[in-house]
Amino acid sequence: MIIEKPKTKDLENIRHILEQWTELEEVEKYISRINLEIEGNTEYSMNFWVIKDGDVLTGVGGLAEPLPLIMPFAKSDNPGEIKILYLDNNYRGQGAGKKMINFLENEAKNQGYKELFIRSAQRYEETAYGFYEKMGYVSLAKLDNNMSVFHKIF
Questions:
Q1: Helix 11-21 × helix 24-38 angle, to 10°
Q2: Quick one: pLDDT band at residue 132, thresholds 50, 70, 90?
């Protein structure tokens, strides 16, 4: 498996993965932001990567500065946030998620982040929460919008 920056030719595969997990409005928001980064116009300090198994795109992940509502939980002066981490359902359980989260953590360290947050909707409780905890993230709080906040300090 390799992790690399997304390319224009990857957008449809990224869309397919996102559509498995989230609503159309969120899909379009992330496709737009990924496309902006491909064109060199990053917003909100968002950076994205894809993971591929050979030529098959199996997942997408992204880092950014945390939203203001997360900042009260920060333990350092430079927190980051994993914005998205989605895998194609056909490739779950094969190590791609672990490889991607390890990559994102290393990238976060390279960007000077001292801790990472993950916000995850309650609908992912069965698929993501245990994975984050297994990867060393601690559940901190539930926000009013049914989002759980996970945290890891480096």
A1: 150
A2: very high
Residue type, 69: L
What are all long-range contacts of 11-15, with beta carbons under 8 Å and residues at least 24 apart? 11/35, 13/50, 13/57, 14/50, 14/57, 14/60
DSSP per-residue codes, 99-124: HHHHHHHHHHHHTT-SEEEEEEEGGG
> Is residue 149 classed as helix, strand or coil in its secondary structure?
strand
| Residues 102/3, Cβ–Cβ less than 8 Å | no
**In contact, 38 and 48? CB cutoff 8 Å:** no
pLDDT tens-digit map of 93-119: 889 999 999 999 999 999 999 999 999
Q: What is the pLDDT of residues 1-26, one digit of tens each?
A: 999 999 999 999 999 999 999 889 99
Q: For the chain, which domains are there?
A: 2-153 (3.40.630.30)
79-87/115-121 β-pairing: parallel
